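Appendix B. Chain record.
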Amino acid sequence: MKQLLLYCRSGFEKECAAEIQDKAGQFGVFGYCKLKANDAFIIFEAYDGAALERFFSDFPFSKLIFVRQWALIIGDWLELPAGDRIAPVLETLQSGDVGNEIGSIGELRIEYPDTNDGKELSTLARKLTVPLRQSLRQAGLMLKKENLRAPVLHMFMQSGQKALLAVSYPENNNSLENGIRRLKFPSDAPSRSTLKLEEAFLEFIPRDEWDTRLASGMRAVDLGACPGGWTYQLVKRSMMVVSIDNGAMAESLMMTGQVKHYMVDGFKYKPDKFNVYWLVCDMIEKPQRVGQLICDWLINGWCQESIFNLKLPMKKRYETVQEVLAEMQQRFDEAGMKVKFQARHLFHDREEVTVHLRKA
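Structure tokens predicted for this chain:
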């Protein structure tokens, strides 16, 4: 298998391509990308299939930022006759050495691009899932019961007549269908930006650590808080929050008694006590400046963990993120501080990347 299928947000195909070529190149895997603007996916074709498979196995998926999902492509694009979309899938999987390469399938996902045209395929994908799963089991290609440790088969539909087959492995992929975490907007939240922080908590903080790292009574600071979308998530978890912004906060948050609002520049505010655990920040500012501000907070001991957004420029977005994170790493190295980085272009992000830092 010499091709890698990668999902991304529509409009970020170039960033996805830049990232996979950069990371694969660091592993000595070289190739080129096939992409079209706003398709919400790309294909990376490697010159060396064995090297690509090693990279796919060894490189941690969690370290990718703009890639929502990845899978090794099996064969070529399939033509799907309207009368029988299952037969071409079985024929491909039963041909040659494909079955020996991937082993028994443990899970089936029928997916599609995150575009307006792609979303119209959701009904067809649901209708196909059960009969295709049954056919795969009857053909001996899929385990009788879903197994979350066995390979995942992705049927990626570009249209109702055209699809790719690809395989990923549960220990190193995105466990979410289409690589997307969809959340319901809480009706009492002040702004839709609240979904960014909720998704970040779900993405970056393991569930079994919520009782200690997202605990009731913790102290938090929200820089650039107004009208309170991110503060809402902290209050919802019974934290005591200092919200910093020159604008107005939602009255519903102020009525909780858990929020203190200071009309101060987020770059000038400094806590008067060393009891803040969380720092969150969604300020509209140059990413380099925000990155250095977050460094100040961790190095000075003003917080223990931070989630913040880097607002991206129109061009060289991947390069900008890499530069900012490298500059931050240099600051921490110079301070003799070990910090764990995580960064993702989350589903509820738009022109920004969300970063999580925690003191090691």
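Further analysis of this model is presented in Appendix C.
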